[in-house]
Amino acid sequence: MAVSELDTAPVPTQTQTQTARARAADFIVTRHRFRPWEALPWVLIVAAYFVFPDRMTFGTQVLIAIMFALSLDLILGYAGIVTLGHAVFFGIGAYTVALLTARLNWGEPITAMALAIVLSSAAGFVSGWFLLRYRNLTLLMLTLAAAILVQEAGNYRSDITGGYDGVPGMEIWKLFGVFENDLYGRVYYIYVGVLLFLVFLVVRRIIYSPFGAALTGIRENVRRMHAIGSPVHLRLVTAYTIAAGIAGMAGALFAQSTAYTTLGVFDFDNSAKVMVMLILGGTGRIYGAFVGAAVYMILEDHLSKLSPTFWQFGIGLLLVLTVLFARRGLMGLVEDAAAYFGKGPKK
Length: 347
Prior knowledge:
Helix 6 packs antiparallel against helix 12. The protein is globular. It has a domain of 230 residues. By secondary structure, the protein is an all-alpha fold.
């Protein structure tokens, strides 16, 4: 009579079981604490200000891309919500600032950004309430269709939105009435960097909270979460609303830092680009957004200078290599290397 592997597998002793439980409990209790290495991205952001003082305009766009990627990671990496229309909320934030400035002559950055967050969050709540009743491919197509509809509506009313020519007459006031965006973009680099740090703290607090654990449970097994009585739909909508607000904040900062906005902010390319950033960095890893966005933006900048026509080939090649050999993204490779060298040589 054949003996199965389960029958011959060693049964863990009581001591081993208690040790495993103790390690799991210790991980749950301490996982939210900051580690020393977590200061590295912020050290690099501060160092870039002094090392590349004449590239702060580009640096600001990198920080905005990181914020945008963080917003997507909250719903894709932690809640498992796959979307191809996340650029809608980025665009709502950008156009809130643009229309306030050009149509209503209100260019105060802080209040305009606050309104952008409110409007993009409201759009996220309303759309999420209906769209998040669906999953997988259906949700993917619905979010893409919603983005196309919003973009075409803006194109239809080009007398208001400016269409693909952009919103004319944008004039952003001085920050706090004192600091004007200088030619090299140093003021806005600091401004966006501080806001990114605040957003990071909020997102980090969310993912290490019981609410964040529930989102991870929904991502891993939505049926089981339904079975234990978890309000799955409400939690997904809540996460979607928060992510929409952060994306709208990134869009508002984009419009303020460039003083220029077109319907291109709603493009599918914008939604796909931020998803590529996350795949490169690693989804479900809060610092994956930092790594992926920075790598993508730097590669895009350098490759487009080398070949304005075929620069996307380099991005595509890196994406293919990442998917084939680094399934958990570049951050996954870093984690594997840290685990390997952390163990030390076996005796």
